[in-house]
Backbone:
């Protein structure tokens, strides 16, 4: 395990990426906890925390400039309910290959009012009933989900399906009760080898496409 210290941040690669945005590369450091990102002094448009061991998407400082957060191939099971207060301009979030299981776990993303592009591929949540419509319903600003454009027809269908709070609550309860093959309950202890996330990174073309 490696702590995300100010020293690590300063020594990590930073560059202008393919779309001319300033990017900080913190990939593959076995970081377990997000911390000390205030040391970036809000100088980056994109931060890449892929291929680490982060369990919770929380403890973010106020980063008014940050537009893209890439955090695939981690172990995320929880998201700070107030994440939008700290990342007011975040428009792109890549959470491919994490451990989000139930629909309610993405509710905090509704606080990201500028979020246009989201990937939840290779999370068990994607196998839940009405997953796509639920996410579209909760995230009003979303334009692209899992690299597929959100269509007006889908938006209308989502609003019709979840017209009442009761239906929304039932969908959350059903997602908890629905067992997905291959799903490992959070309460179980698994050995380190089983915990190691598989590497499923978006291609450079996909990252450029979502931006």
Residues:
């Amino acid at each position: 395990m490696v702590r995300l210290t100010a020293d690590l941040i300063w020594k990590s690669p930073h560059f202008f990426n393919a779309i001319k945005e300033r990017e900080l590369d913190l990939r593959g450091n076995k970081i377990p906890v997000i911390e000390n990102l205030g040391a970036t002094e809000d100088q980056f448009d994109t931060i890449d925390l892929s291929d680490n061991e982060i369990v919770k998407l929380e403890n973010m400082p106020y980063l008014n400039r940050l537009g893209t957060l890439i955090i695939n191939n981690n172990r995320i099971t929880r998201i700070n309910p107030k994440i939008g207060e700290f990342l007011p301009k975040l428009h792109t979030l890549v959470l491919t290959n994490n451990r989000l299981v139930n629909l309610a776990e993405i509710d905090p993303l509704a606080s990201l009012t500028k979020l246009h592009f989201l990937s939840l591929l290779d999370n068990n949540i994607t196998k839940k009933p009405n997953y796509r419509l639920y996410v579209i319903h909760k995230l009003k600003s979303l334009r692209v989900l899992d690299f597929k454009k959100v269509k007006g027809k889908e938006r209308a269908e989502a609003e019709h399906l979840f017209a009442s709070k009761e239906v929304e609550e039932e969908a959350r309860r059903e997602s908890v009760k629905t067992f997905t093959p291959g799903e490992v309950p959070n309460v179980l202890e698994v050995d380190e080898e089983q915990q190691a996330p598989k590497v499923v990174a978006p291609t450079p073309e996909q990252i450029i496409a979502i931006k």
Summary: Helices lie at 6-11, 83-86, 131-138, 152-161, 165-177, 192-195, 204-210. The first strand starts at residue 14 and ends at 16. Strands lie at 14-16, 22-25, 46-48, 56-57, 68-70, 78-79, 92-94, 117-119, 144-145, 148-149. Residues 165-177 form the longest helix (13 residues).
